[in-house]
Amino acid sequence: MALNYSFIKYKDVYTITNNELVVLGYTLSKETCDASVVLKTGTVPVNQSVVLDIKVDGNYTFTPYTENENGTSIIVKNYNNLLISLIEGTEKIVCGCSKCNDCEECSVCEDYLSVFMKDIAFDTLNTPLYKDYIDKIQQDTLCDFTESITCALLKEKVYGNAPVKEVMVKILSYYYLAFYRKDLSLGSDIEEKQYITTKYKFVSISQCLKKLGVNPQEINNVDFSIFNNAFNNIFS
């Protein structure tokens, strides 16, 4: 018989609630490619809740148990620090360097590569969570990328190099939008969705994207249909 408890992530906080008639015990282990290390053991009193503090990025295993029964383990992929870093990097690129014609003038080429690496890493580490959203955005922007790459190649033939800033900005923007849209869809209520929108700095970053020719409302509009009119007001 399954243990009667809940394990909920809300606003990036993990909470365990014990609905059993006995004390619930648990272990939290850090998983690496080579080993599994128990970081913490604890208990949750009957009809009580405990916050599980996970601050360091990584893969974890949460395993509940009682004196007479072992529960099924839960895999926790926590990469919030990486996400915050890529959001800040995206904001810097799309909002802080819009007056420059190419990344050499802004001396941020390494920033572009850094954010791109973080996007790839975040997607890979959380696979397959964001796959459908990234695939959908790739389909929606196929023509846009075709035009951008074709134009860049023509300029490469004429001038000897291909301008890459515009294409890179679009790539980084689309990853950002895919992560945001998916996390927003996972919000359990309006309050958590607003928390996610604030965390992603969406109101300010979306305005910067529009100035760069990327309209967040035009990409993957199907996914925006899941939100009601009350929540849509925060985008204005």
Describe the 3D structure.
The chain is of the alpha+beta class and 236 residues long. The chain folds into two domains: 5-78, Immunoglobulin-like; 80-235, no CATH class. Helix content is 49%, strand content 19%. The chain is built from ten helices and seven strands. It has helices at 80-96, 103-106, 109-125, 131-140, 142-159, 165-186, 190-199, 202-211, 221-224, 229-232; strands spanning 5-10, 13-18, 24-31, 36-44, 49-52, 58-65, 74-78. The longest helix is centred in the C-terminal third of the chain and has 22 residues, at 165-186. It is elongated, with a radius of gyration of 22 Å.
Mean pLDDT: 82
Number of strands: 7
Query: How many structural domains?
Result: 2
Q: What general outline do the C-alpha atoms trace?
A: elongated
Element order: H for helix, E for strand: EEEEEEEHHHHHHHHHH
Category from helices, strands and their pairing: alpha+beta
- Proportion of residues in extended strands: 15-25%
Q: Give the low-confidence spans.
A: 98-105, 220-236
Radius of gyration of CA atoms, rounded to a whole number: 22 Å
Task: Compute the number of helices.
Answer: 10
The strand order across the widest sheet is 4-3-6-7
Structure in a nutshell:
With 236 residues, the chain is an alpha+beta fold. It folds into 2 domains: 5-78, Sandwich (Immunoglobulin-like), CATH 2.60.40.1600; 80-235, no CATH class.
